[in-house]
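Translate sequence into structure tokens.
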Amino acid sequence: MILVLLVFSTIALFLSFIYVHRNSLRLTLTVIFGLLLLTSLVFISKNDGQHYGMVQTTTTKTTTLASAGSSKQMDLLLYQSVGTADKHRVYIYKNTASQKKVQHTKADTKVANHVKTTTGTPKLVTKTTRWTYQSNASKFWFGLADNDSQLVKRTNYFYVNKNWVVLSTTQAKAFSKLMKQQQTTLKARAKVYVQNQVKAAMVKNPTMSQAQIAKISKAAAAQYQANAIQSMLATVKQNQ
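Result follows.
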């Protein structure tokens, strides 16, 4: 509405100055419409530069978080660095395991991302702060400026468990390549590792049942796989 007032006072000032011939009336109208024009300009400037009539409103949204990768061996949170200094990152994730396409945070200086460790269920908490009009009167006067709900900042908090792995997209590609290269070797070494663990367990308990042996074999295979993955991850992170 204040833009309408600005246009109206400008036109009225021009008309009164040009077409009103009585000096006293012209002076009065010029002062009135001139003040309206100046007042409109001042408040438009304050609204645009200082967000006059507005307040910052923060909303919080919590969603579930699922691995960005398709592997069942580990849960992944990926990121892509923006720029060469790695000061800003775009994080890649899924909200549910059944989700086909991944999502990503926005590459914007107003968007910040933080990764935190939790013992609870993985989740994404997004806090968004926007400029909103503090009253209907403020919105009535300045609403035409189309700056309602203007983004101030957005902060994404990724809460992941300790077993989650956070990798850049480059590191993830390198890890996948290394896994394929080492697949045959890892399978052979895993077999030997499991056999040795079973032998060691049978030395301690020669009367173990087949169910006990199967349980030990399964645990040994899982342990070897976890150790191998951690070793390859360390290699990838060191080289990338």
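Note: DSSP finds five helices and eight strands in the chain.
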